[in-house]
Amino acid sequence: MAIMLFVLKWLELKLIIIQHSFEIYAGIIAVIFTGLGIWLALKLARPKQNTVVVEKPVYVNNTDFTFNEAALTQLNMSRRELEVLQLMAEGLSNQEIAERLFVSLNTIKTHSARLFEKLEVKRRTQAIEKAKRMSLIK
What we know:
- This protein is mostly helical.
- It has helices at 2-19, 21-45, 69-75, 79-89, 94-101, 105-119, 124-133.
- It is rod-shaped and about 110 Å long.
């Protein structure tokens, strides 16, 4: 009797598997791709082991700012270029600087390019930082 019951259950399971084979295969594939997605997300989200921490000194604005005339002379920087640099430090765009100084946008771009050359930098943020370190701007 137990053997007969076992055979009937086995045939019933076999019939269920045959009738629902597509759903079973689709479920197995879904589980595989879900596992693959979780593994890939964990692999990509993990921080790299070669992370380098760079410590950079932060220069605090002093209330007793003294303008460095010697640095201005050494860099051979004009007063207009210094004015453009100060407006850059205020966060103004080239267009806004041009409007404030009543000059063309190309003039501001020329002043910026010469500033970058004289300060030996490539970006506005670098120019502002270097000028602050040299006490050219506040």
